[in-house]
Predict the structure of BPI fold-containing family B member 6.
Amino acid sequence: MLRILCLALCGLLTGMRADPGALLRLGMDIMNHEVQRAMEESHILEKMAAEAGKKRPGVKPIKGLSNMKVKDVITPVITLNFLPGVGIFQCVATGMTITGKSFTGANMEIIVVLNITATNRFLQDEETGLPMFKSEGCEIILVSVKTNLPSNMLPKVINKFLNSTLHKVLPGLMCPAIDAVLVYVNKRWASLNDPMPLGRMGTVKYALASTPTTTASHVQVDFSPLVQQQMGKTIPLTNSGEALEFPEGYAEGSSQLLLSAAFLTAELALLQKSLDVKIQDKMIGELPPQNTETLAGFLPEVAEVYPKPKPLVTQIRINKSPKVTMTSGKSLLHLHGTLEMFAAQRGKRPVSLFLLEVHFNLRIRYSVHENWLQMATSLNRLLSLSRRSSEVGDFNEKELINFITDYLQEAYIPVVNDVLQVALPLPNLLAINYDLAELDIVENALILDLKQA
Ligand SMILES: *[C@@H]1O[C@H](CO)[C@@H](O)[C@H](O)[C@H]1NC(C)=O
Ligand SMILES: *[C@@H]1O[C@H](CO)[C@@H](O)[C@H](O)[C@H]1NC(C)=O
């Protein structure tokens, strides 16, 4: 009874929160790079200068100064700091030269050095479901205000007045700059909502599993990837029961992407049908000629039925979803299916010789090319072989182990590798260059240790 209750409750509980199939941890290296890029792309400096020069309604000109112009804006230096549980604290150290005529008629330059600070809260946009930064509490801190006039020409009271006026004027001028930069940073998450193709077999969408979180050293985005067949059917991720976590040992503040074995398995389910093949080449790789005579070398029974050599035709069908497993340093692809061999007949349908049930695994090597995850395989082991039917009499399947092992390696692995050429999409966000990543296989996951160019 209790067990039934737990099954029901636990089912409910796990159904309630989406299990992440991929995790992304962004350290300061990537965030800094993004914000710098956004600054450049948004042409915020030019905009700030233009904005500062404009006459704006509701903003009084600085008393005692006329012909005010912003001459130049000092290249901002941006410093970011993670605020655990909140987001990123941003400080933009910049400044500008304001020119004008003073109340005495003299040309005056005011050099203002200031810091703009704001908290960029990391949220999940309710409408789009995308991660986004939203700035809060923008403040202007005047570091220094200097003029070219001797201080006696600028009475203290004016100086004070200037300071307080700047305090009123500058936030309206400078704070939109923070927002403008964030618009650019936020735009770089937008493609997350676009389903990415996995060959022609389906799509993958990196949907957020929950609101992103911030710690003292990084922001973390948990994905609950949606793997869909071309016809729209969703392939569920099988939960391994263990929470996904980044292993220890990565440099503080560095960035990583973790892809779970369950997620890769779901992606490869899209390719299952493509793994079914019929092979009828006479010569394959290093293999001896593919005919009944060669086969009879392993299975003498074949020679009795076919005294004259006939070409072989092989049909392989994968009848279970391919499964990816990972243990430290090693990843395997498990394939279960049937292998049927036929003797080709001139002008007639090939005749079945036998049908074997096979289970074998392939070793996967991962790499990234142009931001797509690629896999290449080699045969690891033939794990089981059993005879389902035979038209050449009873035989012990053990006699075929070497023949089938060589066949899989030479004839079938190239087919698998061909199918895997489609490559798997990686989350398209920010300006992450996955090609530079170092790949690590850990327990139940593949880790891409991201590097900045
Ligand atoms: C302004 O920002 C710079 C760079 O982050 C920092 O070193 C300095 O202490 C800040 N000054 C003030 C007054 O906040
Ligand atoms: C400007 O005024 C603020 C208070 O409004 C004060 O804290 C600050 O020290 C002043 N800065 C300068 C450069 O005078």
The domain at 7-13+26-189 is CATH 3.15.10.10 (Bactericidal permeability-increasing protein; domain 1).
